[in-house]
C-alpha cells in the first residue's frame, strides 16, 4: 500500500495588503492676476519691446508650470497685444510660434492666443495677413482644441487665393480640411464649408470630387434650413402685424407707445 502523505495545518492565510491608491497630487492654487506686470510691460514696450516681452515670459513660465490657466492666458494675450500695438509683425509671428512651443503649454492659453490674433486679420495688408494666417495655421495644426479656428483660417486663406485667380490652390486648401468631424462647429457652419468645397470643385471642373464631397451633406439638412427660414418669416409677420385691439385704445401723441397711460 502507498504510504499516506503527511498533512500539516498551515492556518488561515495572511490578510491581503491593500493596493496603492496612487500618489496624491497637490491641489492647484487660485489663479494669480498679473495686471501690474502687464501694465509695467506696456510702459516698457514703448522703448524696448524685447525687454517687455522677456519680462512677461519669465512670469508666463511661473504661471504655466503652476498650471495657472487664468494667469497664463492673461500673459500670453498681453504679449500678443504688445506686438500688435507696436506694429512689429515679424515679432508677432515669432512670439506666437514661441509661446505655442513652450514646454507643457496650456491648451486654454494657445486657444486664447489664436483667437485673439485672428481678430487682427481684417486690419492687415494682404502680405502681412497671409503671413499671420500661415503662422496661425501652422501653430494650430494637429491640435484638436483649435481645430475650428484652423478651419475658419483655412477658409479665409482659400478666399484670398481665389481672389488672386488661383482657384486650384483654393480648392486644394479647402479640400485638406475635414469639417464633418469637428465637434466644436455647428451643423450650419459645417454645411456652408462643405458647400464651398463643392463650389470650388465645380469651378475647376472636378466633377468626380464634387460628387464625392456632396455625399457628405444629408438632404434633411436643407429641409431643416427651410423649416427654420419658414418659422423666422412667420415670426416676423406676427411681429409686424398690427395689434387687434389698437383701434379700441385711445392714443396719446406724447406717449412713446401711442397709448394713454402707458
Automatic annotation (TrEMBL):
Region (Disordered): 1-28
Highest taxon above the source species: Eukaryota
Domain PSMD12/CSN4-like N-terminal: 52-229
Cellular-component GO terms for this entry: cytoplasm; proteasome regulatory particle, lid subcomplex
InterPro entries: PSMD12-CSN4-like_N (IPR054559), PSMD12/CSN4 (IPR040134)
Name of this protein: PSMD12/CSN4-like N-terminal domain-containing protein
UniProt organism field: Emiliania huxleyi (Coccolithophore)
Lineage of the species this protein comes from: Eukaryota, Haptista, Haptophyta, Prymnesiophyceae, Isochrysidales
Amino acid at each position: 500500500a502507498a504510504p499516506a502523505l503527511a498533512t500539516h495545518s498551515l492556518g488561515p492565510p495572511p490578510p491581503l495588503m491593500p493596493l496603492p491608491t496612487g500618489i496624491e497630487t497637490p491641489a492647484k492654487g487660485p489663479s494669480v492676476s498679473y495686471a501690474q506686470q502687464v501694465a509695467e510691460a506696456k510702459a516698457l514696450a514703448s522703448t524696448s519691446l524685447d525687454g517687455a516681452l522677456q519680462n512677461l515670459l519669465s512670469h508666463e513660465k511661473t504661471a504655466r508650470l503652476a498650471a495657472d490657466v487664468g494667469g497664463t492666458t492673461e500673459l500670453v494675450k498681453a504679449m500678443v497685444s504688445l506686438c500688435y500695438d507696436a506694429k512689429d509683425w515679424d515679432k508677432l509671428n515669432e512670439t506666437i510660434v514661441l509661446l505655442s512651443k513652450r514646454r507643457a503649454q496650456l491648451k486654454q492659453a494657445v486657444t486664447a492666443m489664436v483667437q485673439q490674433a485672428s481678430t487682427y486679420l481684417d486690419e492687415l495688408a494682404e502680405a502681412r495677413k497671409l503671413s499671420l494666417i500661415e503662422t496661425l495655421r501652422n501653430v494650430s495644426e494637429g491640435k484638436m482644441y483649435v481645430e475650428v479656428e484652423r478651419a475658419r483660417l483655412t477658409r479665409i486663406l482659400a478666399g484670398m487665393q481665389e481672389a488672386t485667380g488661383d482657384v486650384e490652390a483654393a480648392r486644394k486648401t479647402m479640400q485638406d480640411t475635414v469639417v464633418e468631424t469637428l465637434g466644436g462647429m455647428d451643423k450650419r457652419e459645417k454645411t456652408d464649408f462643405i458647400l464651398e468645397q463643392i463650389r470650388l470643385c465645380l469651378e475647376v471642373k472636378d466633377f468626380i470630387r464634387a460628387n464625392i464631397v456632396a455625399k457628405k451633406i444629408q438632404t434633411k439638412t436643407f429641409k431643416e434650413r427651410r423649416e427654420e427660414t419658414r418659422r423666422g418669416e412667420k415670426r416676423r409677420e406676427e411681429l409686424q402685424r398690427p395689434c387687434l385691439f389698437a383701434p379700441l385704445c385711445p392714443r396719446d401723441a406724447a406717449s412713446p407707445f401711442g397709448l394713454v397711460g402707458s
